[in-house]
Amino acid sequence: MSFPPLLRRCPPSNFPLKLTMASKSTLTTTPPSVTPTLQEGEENLDDVLCSSESAAGRQEREAETSAECFLRSPGGYLSGEARVERAWAHWNKLGRPRLIVAPMVDNSELPFRMLCRKYGAEAAYTPMLHSRIFTESEKYRSQEFTTCQEDRPLFVQFCANDPDVLLNAAKRVEPFCDYVDINLGCPQRIARRGNYGAFLMDNLPLVRSLVQKLAHNLHVPVSCKIRIFPDLKDTINYAKMLEEAGCSLLAVHGRTRDEKDQRKIRADWDAIRAVKNAVRIPVLANGNIRHLDDVESCLKETGTDGVLSADALLENPSLFAGFRPAEWAAAAGHIESDLDQAELMVEYLKLCERYPVPWRMIRSHMHKMLGEWFAVQPQVRSELNAQSLLTFEFLYGLVDQLRQLGVKIPLYSKDENNTQVVINGA
Predict the structure, then answer these.
(1) What is the structure's pLDDT at 159?
(2) How many CB atoms lie within 10 A of CB 62?
(3) What's the rounded Cα separation, in Å, for the pair 426 and 423?
(4) Are strands 123-125 and 99-101 parallel, antiparallel or unpaired?
(5) Do 337 and 412 touch, CB atoms closer than 8 A?
(6) Integer Cα distance of 190 and 17 in angstroms
(7) Which residues are part of the catalytic machinery?
């Protein structure tokens, strides 16, 4: 089998792929002061890979590789019962992961996924990737998404509104992932302008055609990530339609398209439970996961097969290993640990040296992971914002500077005498 040129071999046993989302102006999550105004023809340094290869080097590192496909042939023409059985067989084969990194634009890239996996994550989504740009731009493919052999189970997520374009993009990645996921939940203005994400809830025949196109033609299962309708009956009918169209796994964000403030509006776990009871395929819950106790509560209240976490993981990638900030440490038995966000940031930077990504992603994680630390010493944040050309030496130096200034904000975990926290690979 011949694989696309976007596949290159990473050090030493890793093979990168790449995708992310649409225009940089809308995807960059750093403050405006971080990115200087560019003159025509200039390149945004934050969009450059933190360790770029030469064209000759990339050519030398191109290699074909094999990937096991669970499905030997596309399953779109199976009966409904057979599709459900296949959906569960695949989920069981993956080990039924429960703790999952949600898709996050510019933030759920390979180094961050690998950091979360070390600290308990059992599966992960890529950032949302724009199917049209992915099919048209080699630069986009090569810069915006990488993966490696240890980066499994993996959901590769696309936004799309054209079934043929979506299939073209999905075909390129299916050998290297466990699900191709369709983003049906993005509520942002860019999704409205581009007619994708949660705004396809207004065009359910198109949604059905997107799912059917992949289910009929891919060798890996199709998953969908959705938001709920204001009316529960509409949500249940929506979920059933996706299942009938060929969706093998459904992730449900328990907020409507208009409920964007996640800190003020709690996700509706009752609606998620209703979806779980209405369909026969695996269902994941998304919303209200701030620490490990929330995971157990969510699984119990919704009956779902796993949970996704997004914003809380950005601040604390060790969430799934049982670590939590002081804000959520009031529960009995939680004590100060030796781990803090500065140490997690250093681990993340080391992973970025191994798995290069655009600097803008690293900058964004620096702000999110060390936000509380910067609040104590805002001049250090100002130094980061003023630096247009990032280097690892500079970023490690900022972490050292925070420590030298006496900033210490520990994470908390349960007393080891009561609960042993297991870190993957430790």
Answers:
(1) 94
(2) 12
(3) 5
(4) parallel
(5) yes
(6) 24
(7) 186
User: What tens digit of pLDDT does each residue of 367-423 get?
Assistant: 999 999 999 999 999 999 999 999 999 999 999 999 999 999 999 998 764 444 445
Bond prior to 153 in cis (omega within 30° of 0): yes
Q: For residue 140, give the amino acid letter.
A: Y
66 residue type, one letter: S
Instruction: Spell 206-215 as b/e; 16+ CB within 10 A means b.
Output: ebbbbbbbbb
| pTM, rounded to two decimals | 0.84
Q: Rounded distance, CA 196 to CA 250, Å? A: 17
CA 110/CA 351 separation, integer angstroms: 9
Task: Give the residue among 397, 398, 263 at the shortest CA–CA distance from 327.
Answer: 263
Mean pLDDT, the chain, as a whole number?
Answer: 84
d(C-alpha 190, C-alpha 185), whole Å: 12
Q: CB neighbours (10 Å) of residue 397?
A: 12
* Alpha carbons within 13 A on the beta-carbon side of 185: 29
Give the separation between CA 383 and CA 77, rounded to whole angstroms. 58
Distance CA 124, CA 114 (A): 9
| Closest C-alpha to 187, from 105, 275, 82, 97 | 105
Q: pLDDT (tens digit, 9 = 90+) per residue, 169-210? A: 999 999 999 999 999 998 888 888 989 988 999 999 999 999
**Residue that the structure tokens 């959906």 belong to:** 87
Contact 214, 166 (CB under 8 A): yes
Burial annotation 308-347 (CB, 10 A radius, 16+ → b, else e)? bbbebbbbbbbbbbbbbbeebbeeeebeebebbbbebbeb
Spatial distance between the Cα atoms of 197 and 182, rounded to a whole number of angstroms: 8
